[in-house]
Amino acid sequence: MSSRRMTTIAGSLVTASFSAVLILSTAAGADEGPGSSKGGKAVDEAPAGVKLITLLPEQISVDNSSEKTDLTATVKNEGTKESGKIQLLVVGFDGLTVNNVQGCSSIAESDLPEGSNSGFACPIDNLAAGKSKSYAVDATFDLGKTGKICLPVQTGDGKKTFWQQGPVPFGTTNPSPNAPATPLLLGTDNQPVGPGGDKELPKTGPARDLLPMGAGGAALLTAGAAGMWWSTRRQES
Fold first, then answer.
1. CA–CA dist 19, 133 (Å, integer)
2. For the segment 108-144, what is each residue's pLDDT rounded down to a tens digit?
3. Sign, Cα dihedral of 75, 164, 112, 33
């Protein structure tokens, strides 16, 4: 953990929200519907008059052949004063991999939180009161696995996390392996589909929340466990 320069935050895992409305070029680009802050929670206290949240689409759609999907990530200032410098992080877990976020920079593998597979940082110089900023997110979703996404909103230097949505799952309890695309709902655990369209038994209980011993010299909690989360930080030496 020290090599990643991260700080864990005890408590409930929180979720950031994304706005909807993205015109997609493939069948994976179904109408996202309204944005939702489901699973989101304030963490560190924001400056007076600043209230930051995120929005995720209620529904996305995954192309069953390419596994591609698209969605929109939105950060909004619902307060009465401007935010100052902040950053939005977009992080993928398990079967959901974030391939690109328009206008944002990839997070180095060494700086990713435990259990995540990809992430991007989106710096914002200032977000005025009542304003929002949206980002187009390109991702892939392995329908043979569960998949989660997380959206922390931090200070520009990353030392504080004002809001965090997730890691929150996208998924379906009714897989459709023979259809062109599979719709996934926000806040729903995915019921994976095995090779040939056979459904796998859903994994439940503590066993699914632990990585094998030996990773980094210890058993690590995955993002799906209710417990620790992170706030990326590069400490000044």
1. 9
2. 999 998 899 999 999 999 999 999 999 999 999 999 9
3. negative
